[in-house]
Amino acid sequence: MGSGIGPLLFSYNEAMKRLKRKCWATGSLIVLLIAALVMRAFSRAITVMSDTRLSGMTIVIDAGHGGKDPGARSQAIDEDEINLKTAKKLQRLLEGAGAEVIMIREEDVDLAPADAKNAKRADLKRRVEIMNQPQVTLFVSIHCNISLDSRVHGAEVYYQQDNENSHQLAAAVLERLRSVTNSKFQPKTGNIYILKQTTTLGILAEIGFLSNGQDLSALQKDEHLDEIAYAIFQGIDDFVKILE
Ligand SMILES: [Zn+2]
């Protein structure tokens, strides 16, 4: 009788199903492997591209305030600490892209000599000296803002007056910071000691308002500072691309 064919057919169908599953699994594995290889090559290409663009450049990162001068303060949150965290994140990104980075400070310190009569002025003077070194390509000073109007929010970027390159660098960095910080500002220039006293190209980025609730809570999050650092990094890269 044909009683033996049923199980045979069943096991044949099962075997085919298993084979298909196996093929599908192997196929997926191959697709995943190819995707991984493509992504690796792509990320390498990006690194190499950035590398050639930013390598050879010396960039000064100035984490505003520190030491005796905590900068702006809101709800026991000090500006100097946020500035330093962001500066260190930016340092990693720029060094990763092949740039030489000079950090104005890497700890909670100021640069004024202990016997300085005007500590704030002496601190700023020392920062300017570091920025004005001949090997420096550009500098970025990082600060947080404060306003009497708690509604004011978002990043602002200041440029050196009558310096078209500084204006363009500020515009490129602000363009990237706008979406990250929900900013509606345009690049600005103002009576800022560091921007007036430097002979090298630079900008000052105010990365958010400590006086605004949303900005303040965002600025306390590490991921937000990662995004800000990456936006500044991209802005610098965009600016260098324009110059090429
Ligand atoms: Zn400041």
TrEMBL record:
The keyword Membrane applies. This is N-acetylmuramoyl-L-alanine amidase. GO terms for cellular component: outer membrane-bounded periplasmic space. It holds the Pfam family Amidase_3. It is an enzyme of class 3 (hydrolase). Residues 128-237 form the MurNAc-LAA domain. The keyword Membrane applies. It comes from the Bacteria. Its EC number is 3.5.1.28. InterPro entries: MurNAc-LAA_cat (IPR002508), N-acetylmuramoyl_amidase_3 (IPR050695). It comes from Holdemania filiformis DSM 12042. GO terms for molecular function: N-acetylmuramoyl-L-alanine amidase activity. The chain crosses the membrane at residues 23-42. PANTHER family: N-ACETYLMURAMOYL-L-ALANINE AMIDASE (PTHR30404), N-ACETYLMURAMOYL-L-ALANINE AMIDASE AMIC (PTHR30404:SF0). Keywords: Hydrolase, Membrane, Transmembrane, Transmembrane helix.
